[in-house]
Amino acid sequence: MEGSSGGGPPQVALLTLPSPQAEGRFPSVWIVRINAASRELGVGYSRLVAGMDKQGITLDRKIPCGPGHQRPQRFKKVVEAAKAAS
Fold first, then answer.
1. Most distant pair of Cα atoms in the chain: their distance
2. CA 17: distance to chain centroid?
3. Through-space distance between the first and last CA atoms of the chain, rounded to whole angstroms
4. Which of 19, 25, 76, 83 has its CA 20 to 30 A from that of 35?
5. pTM score of the predicted model
6. How far apart are CA 79 and CA 49, in angstroms?
7. Domain spans of the chain, in order of start
8. pLDDT per residue over 14-49, tens digit each?
């Protein structure tokens, strides 16, 4: 058996990078987290985004753990403003 003794070819560790399909799943995770946080306050994701657009509010959807978990009081104000617009 070649390669099993010390004289065989060197073992190579392969580095696997995330595929484009895997990278594309992260935005959906953020959307799910924002949707869950907004639903706790009585607004679904689509109504939240539409209301924010009407109010001129932008939200970084790439915030880890979702804005509802990191700064719940600020997120509640955004949701209330979005509710008022829709």
1. 74
2. 19
3. 71
4. 19
5. 0.62
6. 9
7. 20-85
8. 555 556 665 566 667 778 888 888 899 999 999 998
